[in-house]
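Lecture notes, part 5. Sequence design as translation. It can be helpful to think of inverse folding as translation between two languages: the language of shapes and the language of residues. The source text, in structure tokens, appears below.
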């Protein structure tokens, strides 16, 4: 075998192991009984150590050197070597005992978080979350020393390859300066409209699920390679060609669960659209989380909160729940789905206030990793940040610092990709509807094929062939431009008023 073939076979085996871990993580979040937590944590930790051992195999360096000297490789193979070297460089920074310790700590903390969130009791989670944070700092330092990065940037790099906090600071400071006045304008425009009539429930879970499945089908989700379930925190996970998405239901309000399904379906479409020929290779993976979040937010925010989509969906919502009257009219439903409100919960936030939630988390996690903030002070720091950025104060921990699963599960450095993704989504959607004249008319008919075809060609099928900046520039003609996101907000929340 050539050196490249050796690498491809080796990473094919790693991919198989990653797929098994993906299904175990889904099971942990969706259906695993509480009593299995300790056993599952040990199993996952052992598999993570095994995977880490394969990623730092002593043969990889020689294979990489030899393969990179091979002039006969094509663009995909060369990009695959680039990705393999990036992963190998990062993984060789970590000792196996640190990988095992982190896996066990996050498994235990994530399970404890579920109860702490239900009880709104941050203090009960603090010891386990402290252990996770200590290990994340250690991981960040180890990777940072290898990459020449700060600990936080080294953690960020796992989710956004090439991403740097210095650039994010500039973008987020600009948004933090822009959003307060814009939010006031949007709220003022909204106040000039008649009050929204109430949607009277209850809305049975089985009917909500049926509606969600119908919408997933319209979007193009492949049910032969995926499924919908329930979890405490909605997510997209699973394995290659086995994409598991989840949502959570509230019988008093169907709108949140439905948008959760649409959001996670956006993630799933990206996963299902990656090239089969490279599915088991690093180059066949999604490029990074800002692009992944762009796909979920493009579906949820750009497409499915548009007047075109609501015009298609409102009659189906009315039929699903037996609704009648003005509250179920398309224009009223569109206003409901584009309502701006200062709230406590990130996943329920509108797209105007959502970036403020992300900016808060980004600033806090950066300070916590650097040791510039004390984890015990997190509830107070969270409350202060919410007052500063959104003008509201969470009444309890469940609606404050306990609402997200990311930190308990080890996802430090993930949060900024949400708002980077929102800006990317606006730019990609703008280019898609310009390039594909039937995209918006198709959405109005419930036909997402024109939009999905453009996304397949320009994003999904590209996988990790290109860097994020290269992909975005090729697809839209320019690098990330916050002006497109701001213009989208103005059109939807001010011009449409």
């Amino acid at each position: 075998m050539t050196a490249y073939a050796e690498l491809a076979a080796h990473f094919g085996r790693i991919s198989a192991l990653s797929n098994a871990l993906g299904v175990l993580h889904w099971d942990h979040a969706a259906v695993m009984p509480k009593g299995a937590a300790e056993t599952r944590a040990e199993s996952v930790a052992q598999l993570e150590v095994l995977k880490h051992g394969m990623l730092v195999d002593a043969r990889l360096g020689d294979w990489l050197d030899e393969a990179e000297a091979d002039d006969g490789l094509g663009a995909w193979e060369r990009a695959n070597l680039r990705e393999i070297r990036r992963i190998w460089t990062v993984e060789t920074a970590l000792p196996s005992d640190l990988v095992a310790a982190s896996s066990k700590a996050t498994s235990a903390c994530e399970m404890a978080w579920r109860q702490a969130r239900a009880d709104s009791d941050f203090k009960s989670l603090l010891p386990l979350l402290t252990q996770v944070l200590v290990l994340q700092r250690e991981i960040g330092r180890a990777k940072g020393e290898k990459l020449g990065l700060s600990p936080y940037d080294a953690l960020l790099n796992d989710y956004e390859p090439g991403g740097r906090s210095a650039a994010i600071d500039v973008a987020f400071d600009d948004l933090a300066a822009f959003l307060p006045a814009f939010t006031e304008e949007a709220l003022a425009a909204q106040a000039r409209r008649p009050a929204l009539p109430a949607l009277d429930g209850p809305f049975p879970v089985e009917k909500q699920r049926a509606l969600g499945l119908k919408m997933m089908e319209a979007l193009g989700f492949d049910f032969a390679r995926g499924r919908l379930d329930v979890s405490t925190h909605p997510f997209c996970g699973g394995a290659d060609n086995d994409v598991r998405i989840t949502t959570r239901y509230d019988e008093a309000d169907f709108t949140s669960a439905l948008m959760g399904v649409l959001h996670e379906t956006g993630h799933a479409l990206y996963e299902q659209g990656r090239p089969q020929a490279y599915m088991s290779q690093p180059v066949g993976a999604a490029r990074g989380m800002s692009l992944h979040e762009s796909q979920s937010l493009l579906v949820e925010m750009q497409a499915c909160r548009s007047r075109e989509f609501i015009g298609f969906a409102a009659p189906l919502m009315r039929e699903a729940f037996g609704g009648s009257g003005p509250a179920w009219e398309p224009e009223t439903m569109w206003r409901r789905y584009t309502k701006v409100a200062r709230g406590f919960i990130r996943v329920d936030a509108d797209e105007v206030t959502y970036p403020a939630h992300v900016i808060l988390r980004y600033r806090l996690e950066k300070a916590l990793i650097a040791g510039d903030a004390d984890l015990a002070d997190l509830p107070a720091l969270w409350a202060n940040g919410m007052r500063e950025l959104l003008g509201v104060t969470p009444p309890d921990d469940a609606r404050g610092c306990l609402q997200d699963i990311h930190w308990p599960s080890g996802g430090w450095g993930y949060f900024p990709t949400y708002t980077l993704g929102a800006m990317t989504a606006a730019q990609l959607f703008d280019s898609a509807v310009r390039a594909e004249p039937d995209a918006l008319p198709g959405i109005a008919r419930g036909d997402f094929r024109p939009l999905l075809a453009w996304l397949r060609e320009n994003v999904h099928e590209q996988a990790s062939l290109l860097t994020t900046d290269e992909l975005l520039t090729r697809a839209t003609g320019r690098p990330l431009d916050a002006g497109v996101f701001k213009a989208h907000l103005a059109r939807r929340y001010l011009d449409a008023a």
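The translated text above is only one of many valid answers, since several sequences can fold into similar shapes. The chain has a mean pLDDT of 96.
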